[in-house]
C-alpha cells in the first residue's frame, strides 16, 4: 500500500440540476455524519472538471460517486472497478455534466500521477431539471451508497467513525 498518497472519495455533480448533484449530496452526507482518518480525503468535486487534477494526483485510490447516463431504471446502482475502466467497459463521459473524469485521469497519467485504483459508485438519475433536491428515486440512495463506500473503506483497512449528531435545542 502506498503510504505517501491517500484514499480519495470524490463526489461530482451539479447541485442545481436535480439528480445530477447526487455525488455532491452523498459527499456532504459523509462529511456531516462521519469522521475519517488523515489518509482519507473527501472532495466535493462539483463540476470542477480539470481542476480536480491536484486532488486525483494526491490519491492512490479514488472512489467516485456520481450519476451515470445509462438506459436503466432511475435510481439503479451501478459499480465500476479499475478493471472495468481499463477494459473500456464504461463510457469516457460517465455523466452529463463533466468534461470527462476519465479524460482528466488520462491527463494525470501523462504526468505519471494518476490514481492506481479507481472505483465508481453510480446511480441512474430520474430528473435532471432545475432543482436543488434529489428525486424520490435517488434521495434514499444517498444512505445506501454511503454504506457501500464505508464497507469498501473497511475492505481497504480504513474505519470511519460515526459523528454524534446533537439535535437542535430550543432555549427560552
Automatic annotation (TrEMBL):
<dbReference type="InterPro" id="IPR000671">
    <property type="entry name" value="Peptidase_A31"/>
</dbReference>
<dbReference type="InterPro" id="IPR023430">
    <property type="entry name" value="Pept_HybD-like_dom_sf"/>
</dbReference>
<comment type="similarity">
    <text>Belongs to the peptidase A31 family.</text>
</comment>
<protein>
    <submittedName>
        <fullName>Membrane protein</fullName>
    </submittedName>
</protein>
<dbReference type="Pfam" id="PF01750">
    <property type="entry name" value="HycI"/>
</dbReference>
<keyword id="KW-0645">Protease</keyword>
<keyword id="KW-0064">Aspartyl protease</keyword>
<keyword id="KW-0378">Hydrolase</keyword>
Amino acid at each position: 500500500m502506498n503510504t505517501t498518497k491517500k484514499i480519495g472519495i470524490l463526489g461530482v455533480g451539479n447541485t442545481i440540476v436535480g439528480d445530477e448533484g447526487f455525488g455532491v449530496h452523498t459527499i456532504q452526507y459523509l462529511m456531516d455524519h462521519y469522521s475519517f482518518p488523515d489518509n482519507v480525503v473527501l472532495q466535493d468535486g462539483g463540476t470542477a472538471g480539470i481542476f480536480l487534477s491536484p486532488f486525483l494526483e494526491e490519491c492512490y485510490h479514488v472512489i467516485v460517486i456520481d450519476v451515470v447516463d445509462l438506459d436503466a431504471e432511475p435510481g439503479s446502482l451501478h459499480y465500476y472497478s479499475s478493471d472495468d475502466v481499463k477494459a473500456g467497459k464504461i463510457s469516457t463521459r460517465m455523466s452529463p455534466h463533466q468534461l470527462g473524469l476519465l479524460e482528466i485521469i488520462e491527463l494525470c497519467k501523462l504526468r505519471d500521477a494518476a490514481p492506481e485504483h479507481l472505483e465508481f459508485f453510480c446511480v441512474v438519475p430520474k430528473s435532471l431539471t432545475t432543482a436543488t433536491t434529489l428525486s424520490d428515486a435517488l434521495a434514499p440512495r444517498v444512505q445506501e451508497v454511503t454504506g457501500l463506500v464505508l464497507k469498501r473503506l473497511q475492505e481497504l483497512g480504513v474505519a470511519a467513525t460515526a459523528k454524534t449528531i446533537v439535535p437542535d435545542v430550543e432555549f427560552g
